[in-house]
Amino acid sequence: METSVVKIDNVSFKYEGQEEYALRNVSLQIKDGEWLAIVGHNGSGKSTLAKLLNGLQYPNEGRIEIGGIYLTEETVWDTRRLIGMVFQNPDNQFVGTTVKDDVAFGLENNGVPREVMVERVRTSLQKVKMEQFLDQEPHHLSGGQKQRVAIASVIALRPKIIVLDEATSMLDPRGREEVLRTIRELKDDNDMTVISITHDLEEAAKADRIIVMNRGELYREGVPEEIFQMDEELVKLGLDIPFPVKMSKMLKEKGIPINKHYLTEEELVEQLWTSHSSK
Ligand SMILES: Nc1ncnc2c1ncn2[C@@H]1O[C@H](COP(=O)(O)OP(=O)(O)OP(=O)(O)O)[C@@H](O)[C@H]1O
Ligand SMILES: [Mg+2]
């Protein structure tokens, strides 16, 4: 089961005309069906890594494999079929004049038959709760609505891997929760791999694994429990410790019996509830 769907092998990359490398000796394997969160302060190289995965840029050194295909200028169209990208700014992602056309565009390009296409457009928009906007013009939508449509366009293609680069940052907490739940369902139903670049460490806490980037390097990788044990070190890297982790720590310091740092509010509440009612 444990096959790697993405292999990044010793990749370094420098933007043209720049002195500094944006990525340095990054090696990373992403397992099939995994939810991987990538965190790191501004400019640490997260988006650059996403661009390399999509073949928008190519490594100066090292190599990338997507679904067993060595990513080069010759194979980029094959690898792009496997990987769907949703970026931070939805305005740069629209191609259609209506929401419907926009979601249909990628399907049309992939030669999906018309009946299938109509159905896929509808179900994808339904999944992000935008089906009532089918005939609207994308530029009339709010930022959050645009981002939902961008996500629908990608999930309509049923990619094997989806990369979300701060893709839910325009949504309010409830909208964000909803979209992430949808992606989680899609992941489970279609055996999709999710790579989520996020500033939201509470979201990252729900991932299978977290990568911490720092100054173009892969600084640390581990399951959420391991990463949040870094504690103040995360703050030094410019990251915010999630509220439930902070709260667990504070309670423990006050002598309230907490046996670990809880990663989600639900877990923390559950622990407090059980220890309180057992007295
Ligand atoms: N098009 C570009 N041309 C030149 N330098 C760039 C370009 N895009 C990014 N950089 C530089 O590359 C480094 C990594 O940037 P990148 O956008 O990958 O960071 P990031 O981790 O995604 O940051 P953020 O959290 O702000 O999105 C930064 O030093 C940045 O200034
Ligand atoms: Mg970025």
From TrEMBL:
Major location, coarse class? membrane
| Top-level taxonomic group | Bacteria
Q: SMART domains from the entry?
A: AAA
Keyword Transport belongs to the record: yes
Q: Can you give the residue ranges of the ABC transporter domain?
A: 6-240
Report the subcellular localization: Cell membrane
In the bilayer, the protein is annotated as: Peripheral membrane protein
A molecular function (GO) held by this record is:
hydrolase activity
The entry sums up its family as follows: Belongs to the ABC transporter superfamily.
PANTHER family, per the entry:
ENERGY-COUPLING FACTOR TRANSPORTER ATP-BINDING PROTEIN ECFA1, HEAVY METAL TRANSPORTER
Protein name as it appears in the record: Energy-coupling factor transport system ATP-binding protein
